[in-house]
Amino acid sequence: MDSLFERTYEVVRQVPEGRVASYGQVARMLGEPRKARFVGFALHASPGMAGGVPCHRVVFKDGSLAPGFAFGGPDEQRRLLEGEGVSFLPNGRVDMDRCAWEA
Q1: Global pTM value
Q2: Taking every pair of C-alpha atoms in the chain, what is the biggest distance, in angstroms?
Q3: Which of 3, 16, 22, 92 has the most other CB atoms within 10 Å of its CB?
Q4: Rounded to an integer, what distance in angstroms lies between the CA atom of residue 70 and that of residue 85?
Q5: pLDDT digits over 34-78, tens only?
């Protein structure tokens, strides 16, 4: 497996319960600020929670959920996040002011 995939998983494993990170934030933490889309590819191919990678904690920078969330769709992603105490705005986006992870 590509080492950038593994590095992506290591960063995402650090996102605490009840917090979210953006794809771009993860890419910047990898030292690859222009590879947010690659982060999405890596998460889509990840082992998910079974492999200890909380992919559901990664969202778009505006708080939108991934329409193609690989592990059950955006409704499942929202359910998992709400179960961790992540709050949502009336427009359905994560309240990034309250829930963004500041690494």
Answers
A1: 0.91
A2: 39
A3: 22
A4: 21
A5: 999 999 999 988 877 778 899 999 999 999 998 876 677 778 899
